[in-house]
């Protein structure tokens, strides 16, 4: 990637560093701004202008959802009936609502 971005007067980052930070924050721009000590509105504007940053945010969020789905799937296979029941209820309420 190799290009430097100026986030604020005192904060400069390589594009690759910002992509990594967004990934570590699961695409949460506000959390990333806090970590980088920059204004979240400024960072959000930069993300909107750079397709590769917007794509990283979306991919990080997709990975977070994948991880959450894996947890629910594990709970469905659990030997703990309370955990299994809670997971089944969640799946039915969230995913099964459109079934006829």
Describe the structure.
- By secondary structure, the chain is mainly alpha-helical.
- It has one domain.
- It is built from 5 helices and 2 strands, in the order E-E-H-H-H-H-H.
- It has helices at 15-24, 29-36, 40-49, 51-76, 81-94, and strands at residues 4-8, 11-14.
- It has a two-stranded antiparallel ribbon.
- A hairpin with a 2-residue loop joins strand 1 and strand 2 (11-14).
- It is elongated and about 55 Å long.
- The model has no long low-confidence stretch (mean pLDDT 90).
In short:
By secondary structure, this protein is mainly α. The chain has 5 helices and 2 strands.
Task: Give the strand line-up of the largest sheet.
Answer: 1-2
Sheet with the most strands, sense and barrel status: 2 strands, antiparallel
Discrete helix count? 5
Report the count of strand segments. 2
Secondary-structure-derived class: mainly alpha
Order of helices and strands: EEHHHHH
What is the radius of gyration computed over CA atoms, rounded to a whole number of angstroms?
19 Å
Overall, the morphology is elongated
Low-confidence stretches: none
How many domains in all?
1
Mean pLDDT: 90
Helical fraction: 55-70%
Through-space gap between termini: 48 Å
Fraction of residues in β-strands: 5-15%
């Amino acid at each position: 990637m190799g290009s430097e971005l100026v986030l604020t007067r005192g904060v400069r980052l390589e594009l690759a560093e910002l992509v990594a930070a967004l990934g570590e924050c699961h695409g949460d721009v506000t959390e990333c701004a806090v970590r980088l000590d920059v204004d979240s509105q400024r960072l959000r504007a930069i993300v909107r202008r750079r397709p590769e940053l917007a794509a990283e945010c979306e991919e990080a969020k997709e990975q977070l959802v994948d991880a959450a789905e894996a947890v629910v799937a594990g709970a469905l296979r659990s030997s703990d009936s309370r955990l299994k029941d809670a997971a089944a209820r969640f799946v039915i309420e969230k995913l099964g609502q459109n079934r006829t």
